[in-house]
Write a structure and sequence with these properties.
This protein is an alpha+beta fold. The protein is built from eleven helices and ten strands. A hairpin with a 5-residue loop joins strand 9 and strand 10. The protein starts with a helix and ends with a strand.
């Protein structure tokens, strides 16, 4: 009888949660599994606890993308951005094997311990764009995972990475990565630059694009507009680096 019950449970849950996927009490409740029943399944070894109210299948291996999708349902504005998004979309420069995931969102949050043990990640709410930018502009799942977590398109990811320069991002590496971003779409970049509220980001984008002779440099310079001036621009970054950009 117990084997039959366990078989039915596994069949029902596995149809809802593919292997490698974490799930919580709310998702179990929607399947008719109450808190008491979930506790029984835990004691019986049919489920394993990840954290408070979060479960997985016993002896399962959690997959990164499924864990990110799980977090995206709980954190407003959650997406993969910056250097990670660029790398996932084919723009990279000698990324270390254990490079932290660059994760973004609209609200402060603390990732659960089980996620922190599995993945190295850095989370920020420092959105460089104004509220005038249409919601989710430049955020799309990867083509190979259409139901996956939102990932910044290259144009948005580049500006997000530039916003981290002097904070968690080195200047030289950022410039090297940007040099490989040759196929950005001018119309998408223009919208993002016009809605970027950080002078540092706009100046870096336009100045470096011109210096690196990138195909979309003219579009970036035009979109920057009055943010560019005829004089040299100097600022002290958070890490103490002096950034000097030519006019």
């Amino acid at each position: 009888m117990a084997l039959t019950t366990r078989h039915k449970l596994n069949k029902r849950l596995q149809s809802a949660f593919p292997r490698g996927t974490p799930f919580d009490h709310q998702e179990l409740t929607k399947l008719g599994v109450s808190s008491a029943l979930a506790h029984h399944y835990l004691k019986s070894g049919w489920l394993a606890r990840l954290g408070r109210g979060v479960f997985m299948f016993p002896n399962d291996t959690l997959r990164r993308d499924d864990c990110l999708k799980f977090l995206s349902r709980r954190v407003k504005g959650f997406h993969v951005g910056g250097k990670t998004a660029l790398a996932w979309r084919g723009v990279r420069h000698n990324l270390p094997v254990r490079e932290p995931l660059s994760l973004w969102g609209e609200v402060k949050t603390r990732f659960p311990k089980w996620f922190q043990k599995l993945f190295s990640a850095r989370y920020t709410t420092r959105n460089p764009f104004s509220s005038q930018l249409p919601k989710n502009f430049g955020l799309q799942p990867l083509p190979e995972t259409p139901d996956g977590v939102l990932v910044s398109v290259p144009e948005r990811a580049l500006l997000e990475m530039l916003s981290e320069v002097g904070v968690h991002q080195g200047i030289e590496e950022a410039r090297n990565i940007m040099e490989g971003a040759r196929s950005l779409r001018p119309e998408v970049l223009t919208t993002l630059v016009k809605n970027c509220r950080r002078i540092k980001v706009v100046r870096l984008c336009a100045s470096w694009a011109e210096e690196l002779n990138l195909p979309w440099a003219a579009a970036a310079k035009k979109a920057a507009g009055k943010s560019l001036s005829s004089s040299r621009w100097t600022t002290r970054l958070n890490d103490g680096t002096l950034l000097v950009l030519k006019p």
